[in-house]
Design goal:
The protein is of the alpha+beta class and 232 residues long. Helices cover 28% and strands 28% of the residues. The chain has 2 domains: 159 residues, Alpha-Beta Plaits (2-Layer Sandwich); 66 residues, no CATH class. It is built from 6 helices and 12 strands.
């Protein structure tokens, strides 16, 4: 099985449902054909010079796909239609669809976390490496985040899950067993200690980190229990 990445960015404006909401809608449609691994959020440069609705993050949908030939342009057409049907005037949405990302794209993704980059750079990378990258309205600025987040997601080591398994159904203090049963790969501390029992204060949201390509909830000691840590 391979992993299909669908990255979207800059799809919302203030008071709109948000990119995360849109990503979950798109993921639900795609999951009718391919198993959904989850949706990750990737933090990019948070700088006043970057047009953004909130904190300049982008989302990536992860899906399991078979070894048979997959028409990525067809997937992109379908996702683009869903995005355009929910277009928010004033937004600048971008879309990236990929199976594998070359090293230059991954380097671009990491640079986008700390440095101002341009649409021209994103387009040049896409053209050079034949990546599917589409601007779907406005200034088209969302192609930067869409490409960067997709590349970062492909490393398996950046960002956090905003949706995986049934984690969105859990709130408050939860036993470790309930959290792992909800569909994540494990719980561990920042030092790498595996946590297999006890209770975790989730702060009403469970947001596992993307580590080793898996959803791993990071925690720290908090008295007689554990507290979830949310990684950007």
């Amino acid at each position: 099985m391979s992993r299909l990445y669908v990255g979207i960015d800059d799809t919302d404006i203030l008071d709109s449902p948000g990119t995360g909401h849109l990503a979950r809608e798109i993921a639900a449609t795609l999951a009718e054909r391919w198993p959904l691994i989850g949706i990750t959020r990737h933090q990019l440069l948070n700088d006043p010079r970057v047009p953004m609705t909130a904190r300049n993050s982008a989302n990536v949908i992860h899906l399991k796909v078979g070894a048979n030939a997959l028409d990525l342009n067809h997937v992109a057409d379908e996702v683009a239609a869903l995005m355009l049907a929910r277009f928010q005037p004033g937004s600048d949405p971008g879309l990236c669809v990929a199976l594998d990302l070359p090293l230059p794209a991954i380097e671009f993704g990491y640079r986008t976390k700390t440095t101002l980059v341009t649409q021209e750079e994103a387009r040049r990378l896409a053209d050079t490496h034949q990546l599917i990258l589409r601007a779907l309205g406005g200034t088209g600025g969302g192609i930067i985040g869409a490409l960067a987040a997709t590349a970062l997601a492909s490393t398996g080591e950046d960002g956090r899950f905003i949706s995986v398994g049934q984690i969105r159904e859990l709130r408050g203090i939860q036993p470790v067993e309930a959290i792992t049963a909800a569909g994540i790969s494990g719980v561990r501390t920042l030092a790498g200690q595996v946590v297999s029992s006890g209770f975790i204060e989730t702060d009403d949201k469970i947001r596992p980190a993307l580590i080793g390509g898996e959803a791993v909830l990071l925690v720290e000691p908090a008295g007689q229990q554990w507290r979830a840590i949310r990684r950007d």
